[in-house]
């Protein structure tokens, strides 16, 4: 077992951490800073620049200069080699990256360490995609020696805005396809969790990333984020976060009609059929919500259980929830870490109060977690509400906390209608041992991803994204690469 506490003390000591523009580490133009706190105990980790519109402007200028300068002369094979070097350096520094994420946003260290296959796979997958970009020669209807073809070109400067719940993976989802396609990036991390993203910039710089290809501006969404979305020098904006903020981002992007990709909120259903393997389904359904303390966009927070097994299943899920270990993320036995901030914790507490007031029954948890070892942090017990109706607030709104709303159902047609009766459409889960039932439900559910007898599976080769108010665009797979490319048609008269 590694001494994570000692390493944590060495990693962050409360000092200033500059942001990264045009290959240089710098302060905000205003000189203002933001304090980064450890959500597990409230201690100060560091301060970072409070970037604003002037810093975004400098970063976009640097990204444009790089895009039109040395970076444009990199061959696909050189971009591939760079991505592979970055992947190797990530692998060498993986423990430090994970510890930073755990300290900065609270994710338990065992969960961050377990993401290595996914994140390293992203970098190496997009390295392969860098040399797989090609156009076509297309027969046309013109007589004579007239030829038509297409070439694929990078869209240009990409503005990326990520949330605080998964800084490592969230950053690489945005940066890797940009590098593969020859785009440049200005990335604004969440003000709640910027430190690991700055570490990523350092690792990439040391791997040989040219100046200006990646720029990191720390700051608040209302200032730096809004400026990035509206900037006329940005060709594409990529955003992951709440639906309300995504709508504002899309509105801000209309000034120069920049491309927009949005991965937004969800209120995902998990359906447990009467023929489900209960032993398999209980821990997966529970952790579809409780992983990362419920701070995941795909949380399966609406749990629909066939009436025949409803009481047994909920009893077992409640037992499972009550045995999860809550604690500081750097403890290797911790399964439920802290909530990111006091504001988010208060928001969750408000939903719990509303659920009780509307008549829901607490089957497990239902309050903040307390104890001397949790002092100074923001912790919640894994919570399960029974007696929930589709009209209750906890069944309709995204909570972003460890809260399950459980409801019985009688028929498949009924549960499909209820599961789809939401403005969101990010993900869904189905548990059934009958292949036909699983197929029918998977095809009828309105969601960007449907998992059967599993949950949380995300792979760089498989597209991920939402429908309806959960956004548009995809991350992962060939579809992701296409979103960073333009198609140019070329006609040649050889007569």
From TrEMBL:
Transmembrane segments: none annotated. The active site is at 263. Coiled coil: none annotated. Keywords: Oxidoreductase. Residues 25-490 form the Aldehyde dehydrogenase domain. It comes from the Bacteria. InterPro entries: Ald_DH/histidinol_DH, Ald_DH_C, Ald_DH_CS_CYS, Ald_DH_CS_GLU, Ald_DH_N, Aldehyde_DH_dom. One of its GO terms (molecular function) is oxidoreductase activity, acting on the aldehyde or oxo group of donors, NAD or NADP as acceptor. SUPFAM superfamilies: ALDH-like. Belongs to the aldehyde dehydrogenase family. This is Aldehyde dehydrogenase (Acceptor).
């Amino acid at each position: 077992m590694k001494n994570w506490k000692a390493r944590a003390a060495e990693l962050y000591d409360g000092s200033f951490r500059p942001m990264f523009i045009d290959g240089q580490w710098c302060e905000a133009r205003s000189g203002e800073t933001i304090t980064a706190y450890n959500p597990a105990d409230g201690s100060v980790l560091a301060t970072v620049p409070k970037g604003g519109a002037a810093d975004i402007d400098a970063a976009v200028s640097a990204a444009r200069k790089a895009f039109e300068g040395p970076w444009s002369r990199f061959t696909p094979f050189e971009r591939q080699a760079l991505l592979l070097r970055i992947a190797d350096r990530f692998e060498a520094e993986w423990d430090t990256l994970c510890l930073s994420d755990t300290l900065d946003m609270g994710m338990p260290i065992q969960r961050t360490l377990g993401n290595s296959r996914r994140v390293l796979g992203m970098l190496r997958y997009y390295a392969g995609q860098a040399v797989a970009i090609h156009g076509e020669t297309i027969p046309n209807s013109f007589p004579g020696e007239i030829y038509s073809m297409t070439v694929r070109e990078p869209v240009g400067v990409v503005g990326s805005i990520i949330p605080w719940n998964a800084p490592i993976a969230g950053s690489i989802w945005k940066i890797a396809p940009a590098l593969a396609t020859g785009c440049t990036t200005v990335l604004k991390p969440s003000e709640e969790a910027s430190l690991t993203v700055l570490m990523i910039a350092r690792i990439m710089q040391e791997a040989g990333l040219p100046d200006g290809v990646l720029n990191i501006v720390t700051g608040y969404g209302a200032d730096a984020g809004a400026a990035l979305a509206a900037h006329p020098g940005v060709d594409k904006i990529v955003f992951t976060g709440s639906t309300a903020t995504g709508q504002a981002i899309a509105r801000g992007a209309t000034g120069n009609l920049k491309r927009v990709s949005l991965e937004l909120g969800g209120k995902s259903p998990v359906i447990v059929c009467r023929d489900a393997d209960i032993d398999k389904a209980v821990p997966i359904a529970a952790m579809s919500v409780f992983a990362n303390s419920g701070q995941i966009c795909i949380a399966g927070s609406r749990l629909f259980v066939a009436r025949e097994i409803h009481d047994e299943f909920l009893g077992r899920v409640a037992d499972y929830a009550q045995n999860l270990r809550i604690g500081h993320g750097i403890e290797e036995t911790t399964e439920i870490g802290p909530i990111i901030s006091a504001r988010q914790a208060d928001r969750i507490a408000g939903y719990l109060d509303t659920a009780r007031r509307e008549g829901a029954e607490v089957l497990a948890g239902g309050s903040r977690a307390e104890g001397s070892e949790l002092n100074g942090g923001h912790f919640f017990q894994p919570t399960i509400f029974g007696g929930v109706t589709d009209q209750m607030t906890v069944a309709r709104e995204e909570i972003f906390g460890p809260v399950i709303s459980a409801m019985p159902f009688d028929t498949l047609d009924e549960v499909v209608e209820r599961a789809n009766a939401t403005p969101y459409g990010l993900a869904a889960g189905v548990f059934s041992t009958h292949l036909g039932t699983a197929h029918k439900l998977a095809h009828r559910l309105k969601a960007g991803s449907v998992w059967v007898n599993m949950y949380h599976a995300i792979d760089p080769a498989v597209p991920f994204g939402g429908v309806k108010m959960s956004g548009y665009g995809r991350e992962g797979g060939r579809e992701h690469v296409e979103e960073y490319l333009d198609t140019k048609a070329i006609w040649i008269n050889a007569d």
